[in-house]
Amino acid sequence: MLSLSSLLSFAPGLRAQAPRLQAGADVPARLASRVATAVARAWGVDTAGLVLSWGTGTASDIPDSSAFRVMGRGDDGWFVVSFEPPGRPARAIRLRAGMSTLTAVATRVLRPGTRLAATDIRMDTTLVWGPPTESETPAEGWLVKRVVSAGDPLDGFRVEPPPVVTAGQPVRVLWQRGNVTVALEGTALNDAGIGGRVRITTEQRPGVVTGTVTAPGQARMP
Question: What is the full DSSP assignment across 68-115?
Fold first, then answer.
């Protein structure tokens, strides 16, 4: 069986998250380790940060060397592992995988419109279900988009980079198709940070165009 201590061995420093893991199925440690290696390889990570939580069922009688298939896209970390012991029917057990990662979290309650101060941010080791994603670490000056409680992750759902385009500012908008590039000069109607959406009025075309901010004073149309 993959014990809680075995699960935590994949994620040093995660003992505070132990209650979030479920005992789950009896899966021999060596077999579970092989599954962990397969998931880590698919995600391009090291098993040292990987956490596995097995669903109900038993695999205690399945030989460690048995073939298996990890099925599913891994949305929110969910998979189904089909064990295929020689000479016996396949056995499927649900699996959830996640990563122990350093995450920026809030040190206090934050209201929408607040700009982050250095004292608002703390780096904690947290368990995130699903494959790792690349994201910019929030820093002082970032803008709070919605109510944040102490301990909440400061992720893209809750905070965003400070605006590099402000309402009323001139903006250069690029539209490109193949080798053809068209540049428009306009005026921003709202504040937006890198990667944010900005609405722009231009003299070259009627109405309002929407672009994605790529740099201070610059945006591109989809």
Answer: EEEES--GGGEEEEEEE-TTS--EEEEEEEEEEEEEEEESS-B-TTPB
Q: What's the CA gap between 47 and 123, in Å, rounded?
A: 21
Residue 192 has pLDDT above 60, yes or no: yes
Determine whether domain 170-220 maps to CATH 3.30.1240.10.
no
Nearest residue to 84 via CA among 70, 99, 100: 70
Is residue 69 a contact partner of residue 92, using CB atoms and an 8 Å limit? no
Distance CA 4, CA 51 (A): 10
Q: Would you give the DSSP letter of residue 77?
A: G
Domain ranges of the chain: 4-99, 103-125+135-160, 170-220
**Residue 152 pLDDT > 60:** yes
